[in-house]
Specification:
CATH superfamily of the largest domain: GAF domain
Number of strands: 16
Structural class: alpha+beta
Helix content: 40-55%
Largest sheet: 8 strands, mixed
Strand content: 15-25%
CATH architecture of the largest domain: 2-Layer Sandwich
Number of domains: 3
């Protein structure tokens, strides 16, 4: 019988993997080795969903040469059954099950029993965690619960590690150009209707290398880089904790993904390699960030493409510390219902803009899977993204985004007098005092006047 103490020890060990492993292959190898030992199984393997197939990505117990080579459809095998149903598959005699699929040459014929549980992240299956034993036996309910618990802990870790690793498998061809969008029509990423005064943001979110690119001392430049990264890690940790308290743990995980980018060993080694070669820390950060962003943008999966914005967010934060800029200043209190209008909006900047009179967001870029969109939905703020090129908008211009299918944005080009009003869904955390504190409520304005 698996005790509660054993469960806690396993979860602590998995947490250590989160800290110590940043490469996907190393992460999966550590996870499978740990779980095989703790469950007393001869085999532990991880299969990930890639391109409509389940691909063996790590194993302890099967032939290591099978990693990356063994593939099956999601409707094949017991592993496919666990992925397809979203439920554990526990078989005493696996080869007698009608869904059993045998792969010769990987040493699987020696193993009789099979337990597979789905890896689920954000309510979507991303793979399967499987253990096997040579003894024909049915895994106990305690063992099943332990593997299910382990899967729930490692799924977000695997998903975030995969985001960084996928860049190496990015398609070589540039993505097809997006279809032409109707003027001032976009994607409904957060439901509701809002009307308010426009608050245009003209912040530069591009990554441009500095003019000065010849540091005198690479060691000093390396020290500047380490200090900037440490400061960025501290900021993001604080931001993650703040968002977790104010909204939810799921939204806080957005900034945990930023921490994984900051701590990714491969990414940091690429930057350091350039600095040692005489490149300034700022230019090295820009060059490597552009490389990662370009790779993400080439991917077909819309969720993965949106991760380019996370890399940009992290890179801009590190660059700010290298330049000594610090974070952008908080905006003045919105004294009337306000709609932010911008080319793009990184998650950390959105968090800075949150306040009670923020009633809508309109962005030229972005989509439903962006982390900023997720934050908008959690905060209950109607948002329309992917509008395309925005016209010049004067501050105070009345703007009405509609977060419904076939979304449109009405922007009155002339000054308009009259009452201002807005409706939006109640944020799911609106009954929590922490959410109100996070939004930093100002004293209410008059709600009317010339806009």
């Amino acid at each position: 019988m698996v005790t509660e103490s054993e469960k806690l020890i396993l979860l602590e060990d998995l947490s250590r993997i989160v800290v110590s492993c940043h490469d996907l292959g190393e992460t999966l190898d550590a996870i499978t080795g740990l779980l095989r030992e703790r469950l007393g199984a001869e085999v532990c393997s991880v299969y990930l969903h890639e391109g409509g197939e389940l691909v063996l990505r790590a194993t302890h117990g099967l032939d290591r040469s099978a990693v990356g080579r063994i593939r099956m459809g999601v409707h094949e095998g017991l592993t496919g059954l666990a992925f397809e149903t979203g439920l554990p598959v526990n078989e005493e005699q696996a080869d007698r099950h009608p869904r059993f699929k045998f792969f010769p040459g990987i040493g699987e014929e020696r193993f009789r029993s099979y337990l597979g549980v789905p890896l689920i992240h954000r309510r979507q299956p991303i793979g399967v965690l499987a253990v096997q034993t040579a003894e024909a036996r049915r895994f106990t309910p305690d063992e099943v619960r332990l593997l299910v618990t382990a899967a729930s802990q490692v799924a977000p870790l695997i998903a975030n590690a995969s985001l960084l690793d996928t860049r190496a498998r990015a398609a070589s061809e540039p993505p097809a150009p997006p279809p032409a969008a109707a003027f001032l029509r976009g994607i409904a990423v957060s439901p509701g209707y809002a009307r308010g005064a426009a608050y245009p943001l003209a912040e530069e979110l591009g990554l441009e290398p500095p003019a000065d690119d010849a540091p005198e001392d690479p060691d000093q430049e390396m020290a500047r880089l380490e200090k900037a990264v440490e400061a960025s890690v501290a900021e993001v940790e604080a931001l993650r904790d703040q968002v977790t308290r104010a909204l939810s743990k799921e939204e806080g995980a957005i900034f945990h993904a930023h921490l994984l980018i900051l701590e990714d060993r491969t990414l940091r080694d690429k930057i350091k390699e350039r600095v040692r070669a005489g490149t300034s820390a700022s230019r090295a950060v820009v060059e490597v960030a552009r490389e990662y962003i370009g790779a993400f943008l080439k991917l077909e999966d819309p969720y993965l493409r949106e991760r380019a914005a996370d890399v940009r967010d992290v890179a801009l934060r590190v660059l700010g510390h290298l330049r000594g800029d610090g974070p952008p200043p908080r905006p003045a209190r919105f004294r009337e219902p306000t709609v932010v209008v911008a080319d793009d909006l990184i998650p950390s900047r959105f968090v800075q803009l949150l306040q009670p009179n923020l009633v809508g967001v309109v962005l030229a870029k972005g989509g439903r899977n962006s982390h900023t969109a997720i934050l908008c939905r959690s905060a209950g703020i109607p948002a329309v993204m992917g509008v395309g090129r925005l016209p010049h908008v004067e501050p105070g211009t009345q703007t009405s985004p509609t977060g419904t299918p076939g979304s449109s944005i009405s922007i009155r080009p002339t000054r308009w007098c009259g009452s201002t009003s807005a409706w939006r869904p109640t944020p799911r955390s609106s009954d929590r005092s922490s959410w109100r504190t996070f939004r930093n409520p100002p004293s209410p304005g008059t709600g009317s006047g010339c806009a």
